[in-house]
Amino acid sequence: MIQKSDRLRNVHSDIRGPLYEEALRMQAAGTPVLKLNTGNLGSFGFQMPASVREALLSQLDQAVPYCDVRGMRPAREAIMRYHLGCGLSGIGMDDIFICNGVSEAASMLMSVIVGIGEEILLPTPCYSLWSNNTYLGGGVGVFYRCDPRNGFNPDVEDLRRKISPKTKAIVVINPNNPTGAVYSRETLLEIAEIARQNHLLLISDEIYDRLVMDNVPTYSLGALAPDVPCVTFNGLSKSHVICGFRCGWMVFSGPGLEEIKSGVMQLASIRLCGNALTQLVIPAALADMQSTAAQLVPGGRIYEQRKAVTDTLSTIDGVNFIKNQAAFYLFPCIEREKFDFESDESFAMQFLHEKHILVIPGHGFDWFEDIRCRIVMLPEPEVLRSAMLQLGDFLDSHRI
């Protein structure tokens, strides 16, 4: 038998892993399953904004030929204006690469910067896109802790302790997936100072920066540290309900990135260009923030879905959580000492089998301190409220 590469040894995608496959098997056997495993808005009745639809349909012919390997000029101009508005300075058109989702952009960058045995500092919990691309590059993921007692902000001292001569970059996911946390300005400045002192690259995943609630302030990491090399990632999948369009980008800011940009250009050229159809909608989408903002205030669907989950969960003994400030994810803790679960995996599998609800255990996000799961809060509020009541019933049947 031909063996697969050793680089896949630590790669995992639990969002569509064994639990997901079990849910599909159950569905095929006739059992309905409520899937709270992935932030795929279109699967829950969300519609793309009219501005996006009109931009796509009115310009279709412009997407027939290959475009610039970095991306269409009007799209990059709109992205540049957006990030200048977020505080990035000194960026130009050639600092922007439009890709087939942030996933492709992350893969390109990590392929360029990660050498065999080099270390990338990653948060725990961590969206597995970043850890997986570290492993695929032959690198080593070193995890710094995000502290539940501090709103899941990174533990800056733990991060500092994890730096070694092999450290190449620090990955920051803010607003965060899977916790929904928004990091404080003070925390971000401390992380930037660590990168500055140790000559490290900052990698900032900011794709949820337009999905922030409760008037919580957000800060772009590269804007806070214009003298530190930084690559900022963003896209339209979540904010404008076009996950399937695969529309993401990266922006280079700060000094010393010429060789890295050259390497990304090599990879971008190999694949010729990103999907040109999706690039047509970028200017219209970035000019239309209101359709997103309307979802995030009282009466808006994302706001009311969060309320349905958190109000119900707060009545269940043995569950504690930090209310998310952004996105539509919650990362609650199931208090181990009160229940008979051996692990977060056994909790999630039994919940799936007994209540037919799919959630992803904490280990899928490289979190192993306690029993947690990520709940995706995208179904209608009444559906989520019912699901959380079922969770309460399930936990009652497993109390010690």
Protein architecture, described:
- By secondary structure, the protein is of the alpha/beta class.
- Helices cover 37% and strands 16% of the residues.
- The chain contains 15 helices and 15 strands.
- The strands form 4 sheets. The chain has an 8-stranded mixed sheet. A 3-stranded antiparallel sheet has the order 11-15-14. It has a two-stranded parallel sheet with strand order 1-13.
- Strand 6 (167-173), helix 7 (185-198) and strand 7 (201-205) form a beta-alpha-beta unit.
- Helix 4 (101-113) packs parallel to helix 5, helix 4 crosses helix 9 (258-270) and helix 13 (301-313) packs parallel to helix 15 (381-396).
- It starts with 17 loop residues before the first helix and ends with a helix.
Brief characterization of the structure:
With about 400 residues, the protein is of the alpha/beta class.
How confident overall, as mean pLDDT? 95
| Main sheet record | 8 strands, mixed
- Rg from C-alpha positions? 21 Å
Helix/strand class: alpha/beta
What is the count of β-strands? 15
N→C terminal distance: 47 Å
Low-confidence stretches: none
Number of helices: 15
Which terms would index this structure?
16% strand, alpha/beta, three-stranded antiparallel beta sheet, eight-stranded mixed beta sheet, 400 residues, globular, 15 helices
SSE layout:
Layout (H helix, E strand, L loop, with lengths): L17 H11 L5 E2 L14 H9 L14 H13 L10 E5 H13 L5 E6 L3 H9 L3 E8 L5 E2 L1 H6 L5 E7 L11 H14 L2 E5 L15 H4 L5 E6 L11 E7 L4 H13 L5 H4 L2 H6 L2 H4 L7 H13 L5 E2 L8 E2 L2 E2 L9 H12 L1 E2 L1 E2 L11 E4 L4 H16 L4
Parallel strand pairs: 1-13, 3-4, 3-6, 6-7, 7-8
Antiparallel strand pairs: 2-9, 4-5, 8-9, 10-12, 11-15, 14-15
Helix pairs in contact: 4-5, 4-9, 13-15
